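Write out structure tokens for Mos1 transposase HTH domain-containing protein.
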Amino acid sequence: MTDGMVRKWVRQFNDGRTNVHDEAWSGRHSVVNDGLVAKVNEKIRENRRFTIRMLCDEFPQISKTVLHEIVTNRLNYRKLCSRWVSKMLTDVHKTK
């Protein structure tokens, strides 16, 4: 942590700040929303033998890294024998 940041915080608390948590930042908003996740999931269910590169062709406005994050973290899919399957199979998934 830099001395400048410590000085800034000391100044803010001396001026009356009482909240120790970070304030909401106005940086770049996330591209990932529920609608996009649903569209990606729909494309995956149409063709389980897809690649991330194929998804990039379907969604050219979304980067490969973001699509990989959606598939692996948000939808909990993983590659298994050249097919993407859910990590946690329920009884409904097992019957399909």
